[in-house]
């Protein structure tokens, strides 16, 4: 049976709730985690499920934008190894062809060998030197990843930056080229790590970073139609018609342990006074001491086994190709209260969800998939607030920002292509060669130590905490398969936050001037169009994705994912990529976390194994 096929449910509805009715579950956020939760719940026979999305589209941090004859991906775009999301893309025939000679290349620095490393003085670094130095730097990354292996008590205060700088001299001695080039490549490697996590290497936990696990296959892949189309297939498979409500932001979630919303709870006044039995009290004591035996398994083998189990249980990737990718048509469920004037005393429910428009929804369980950035920016989102330990985990978890900036040209108007007929099939190849050179996938700017180039187009002159301008943190320009005349530039951390605050016209001009400087092509025409991601500015995300920060317990992911008030009574649960111990910051990690949150609810009704 295909549990993810839309509309396929158990023949007999579930009616095991204590009040003689089916349990009601509300899922907040229609991203990967939210859709994963709904799919798991409905597959097991829970029919009274509502999925609320604040924005006018589902997908969360997965978003395509059509541009000309192609598209750009403002959010998640990479498949990291073979996992549930990969299986959907493969099933639908959406996997893009792998670059020649790159069929088994893992997600490492060696993937940048086809790029032109250009120094700030306009020189191109010899490709032989580039390849050698990338190998040396990759060995440093591998050593950092293995630094905490076998240690009974890993040093949680150690940062990745501490490790890098502690091995700076040894690494520099192994590298080739001038001291200036070697230093610039070392700093670029640190910069890339920042843009791979959203936080600086000094913020990134050495022990926590080592917890990240690569799925089998290791390489990164993109899709032919964009990750949003892959997501739509998952949405169609997982979410029954009428379940999804768009443009429905939640204002506050009132909840109580043990069932029974009273007037005091509904007003959000004070802590809920609940008597717990000794077993629940003991369970909470264990949880809040940050021990390792929480929902997520302690070791990678168990976590991988659980991921495989989820793959099998929810039949991801087994449905025949051809699933429609249309967004689910929404309707208002008739059996759910959407009434601004409704009585807010509902003793048979444990959750009351108050929407921004004044509508109220009652439920037995709520699964919240909002980002760490949103939860941190809205401390009163839950009434009463989450446990002290959950609050600490939300405030302590690293949540960085990564931004993409797309520069698009019109090949017919480009002065450097004025003699090239646009109707020729190789016009894109001609454009690429004149833009970047032959057999080059992109440009990596290397700022030599002491370079202090003030760009004419940069109106914002305030420097960051590290003393650099925001544009000095642009780590790469590269081609994309989804648009023939586009370069995308990446920036992360504080620089990305600054970039989002600047006018679009200034960012476009700065990136163009920067490219002409490093490519030594003053006649390079400016882009015709420009679009950027703004995940930090978005009030519903407030950033890109999570990382484990230095100095915090390694169990934050498990604390975040633990149900409240207990695993036996999962009234409130958090889900999302930040709740995944080994797959944080990824789509498959978010999807898995939503499924695990649903499983906790199903366990409450003895449905987890069905």
TrEMBL record:
Coiled coil: none annotated. Residues 40-266, 351-602 form the Amine oxidase domain. GO terms for molecular function: polyamine oxidase activity. Pfam families: Amino_oxidase. It comes from the Eukaryota. PANTHER family: FLAVIN MONOAMINE OXIDASE, SPERMINE OXIDASE. This is Amine oxidase domain-containing protein.
């Amino acid at each position: 049976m295909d549990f993810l096929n839309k509309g396929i449910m158990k023949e007999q509805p579930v009616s095991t709730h204590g009040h003689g009715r089916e349990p009601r579950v509300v899922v907040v956020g229609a991203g990967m985690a939210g859709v994963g939760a709904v799919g798991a719940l409905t597959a097991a026979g829970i029919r009274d499920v509502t999925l609320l999305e604040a924005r006018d589209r589902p997908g969360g941090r997965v978003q395509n934008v059509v541009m000309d004859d192609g598209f750009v991906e403002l959010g998640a775009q990479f498949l990291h190894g073979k996992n549930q999301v990969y299986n959907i893309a493969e099933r639908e025939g959406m996997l893009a062809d792998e670059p020649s000679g790159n069929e088994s290349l893992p997600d490492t620095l060696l993937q940048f060998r086809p790029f032109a490393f250009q120094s700030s003085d306009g020189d191109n670094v010899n490709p032989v030197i580039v390849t050698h130095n990338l190998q040396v730097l990759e060995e440093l990354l591998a050593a950092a990843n293995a630094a905490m292996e076998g240690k009974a008590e890993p040093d949680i205060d150690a940062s990745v930056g501490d490790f890098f700088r502690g091995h700076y001299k040894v690494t520099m001695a192994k590298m080739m080229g001038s001291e200036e080039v070697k230093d610039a490549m070392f700093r670029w490697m640190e910069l890339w790590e920042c843009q791979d996590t959203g936080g600086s290497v000094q913020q990134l936990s050495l022990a926590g970073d080592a917890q990240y696990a690569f799925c089998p296959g290791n390489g990164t892949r993109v899709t032919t139609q964009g990750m949003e189309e892959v997501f739509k297939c998952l949405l169609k498979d997982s979410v029954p018609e009428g379940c999804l409500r768009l443009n429905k932001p939640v204002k506050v979630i009132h909840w109580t342990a043990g069932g029974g919303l009273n007037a005091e709870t509904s007003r959000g006044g004070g802590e809920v006074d609940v008597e717990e039995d000794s077993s629940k009290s003991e369970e909470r004591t264990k949880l809040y001491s940050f021990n390792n035996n929480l929902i997520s398994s302690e070791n990678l083998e168990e976590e991988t086994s659980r991921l495989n189990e989820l793959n099998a249980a929810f039949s991801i990737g087994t449905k025949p190709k051809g699933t429609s990718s249309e967004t689910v048509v929404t309707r208002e469920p008739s059996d759910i209260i959407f009434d601004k004037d409704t009585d807010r005393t509902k003793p048979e429910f444990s959750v009351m969800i108050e929407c921004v428009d004044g509508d109220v929804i009652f439920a037995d369980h709520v699964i919240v998939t909002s980002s760490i950035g949103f939860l941190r920016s809205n401390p009163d989102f839950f009434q009463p607030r989450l446990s002290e330990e959950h609050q600490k985990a939300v405030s302590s978890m690293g949540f960085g920002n990564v931004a993409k900036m797309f520069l698009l040209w019109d090949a017919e108007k480009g002065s450097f292509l004025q003699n090239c007929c646009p109707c020729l099939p190789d016009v894109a190849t001609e454009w690429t060669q004149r833009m970047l050179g032959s057999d080059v996938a992109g440009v990596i700017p290397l700022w030599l130590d002491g370079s202090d180039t003030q760009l004419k187009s940069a109106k914002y002159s305030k420097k960051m905490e590290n003393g650099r301008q925001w544009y000095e943190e642009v780590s790469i320009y590269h081609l994309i398969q989804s648009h023939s005349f586009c370069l995308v530039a990446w920036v992360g951390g504080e620089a990305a936050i600054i970039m989002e605050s600047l006018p679009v016209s200034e960012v476009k001009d700065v990136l163009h001037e920067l490219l002409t400087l490093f490519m030594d092509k003053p006649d390079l025409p400016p882009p015709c169009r420009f679009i950027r991601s703004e995940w930090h500015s978005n009030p519903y995300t407030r950033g890109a994705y999570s990382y484990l920060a230095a100095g915090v317990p390694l169990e934050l992911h498990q604390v975040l994912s633990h149900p409240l008030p207990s695993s036996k009574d999962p009234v409130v649960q958090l889900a999302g990529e930040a709740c995944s111990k080994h797959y944080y910051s990824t789509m498959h990690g978010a999807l898995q976390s939503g499924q695990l949150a649903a499983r906790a609810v199903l366990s409450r009704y003895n449905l987890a194994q069905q």
